[in-house]
Amino acid sequence: MNRRDFVIRTAGSGLIAGAALAAGCTGTGTGAPRDDAARREEIDAGVDGALSRLYGSVPSARELGNRAQGVLVFPRVLSAGLVVGGETGVGAMRVKEKTTGYFRTTAASFGLTAGGQSRSVILMFMTPEAYERFMNSRGWTVGADASVALARVGANGVIDTNTLRQPVIGFVQTNAGLMFDVSLNGARITRLDI
């Protein structure tokens, strides 16, 4: 393992532990099926909320989502750190409004990072090839395995036509609205067994 991978894993692990403590998780470790069912239900409710906010603020995104092969939604990606930071979140893949799997995203950041924030990240896989490549991977990294085009939305709420031609289209939103000046490169996505 090289130094960069070590730093990314260490930052991601620390962030996950910190997020669990901040959320008040008890981590009983029962592993009972009911615990997994409750976790899936919580993630699905978050996914519904994130999609509802996106479709409410960008109506043309609903049509795009309906055309997508799959829509991967991370309703709450937490980022925190000081100089070296990281982010993590859990979400679900939706195909024709049905959940087909659960996933985790992690990433590390370097530079002037302070404090923490939460945002939702939505990735729409527009081509069968992009969707299959993602679903068949054991771990998928934005920028290395595929580029993600962040959606550009005009003042009229219509998504830019150049964006519409991309195989993977991303939306990043906070409570203040869509973010256009962010990069998702380096975010690693892996399947959750729940």
TrEMBL record:
It comes from the Bacteria. Residues 1-22 form the signal peptide. Residues 107-190 form the Ysc84 actin-binding domain. InterPro entries: Ysc84_actin-binding. Keywords: Signal. This is Ysc84 actin-binding domain-containing protein. Pfam families: Ysc84.
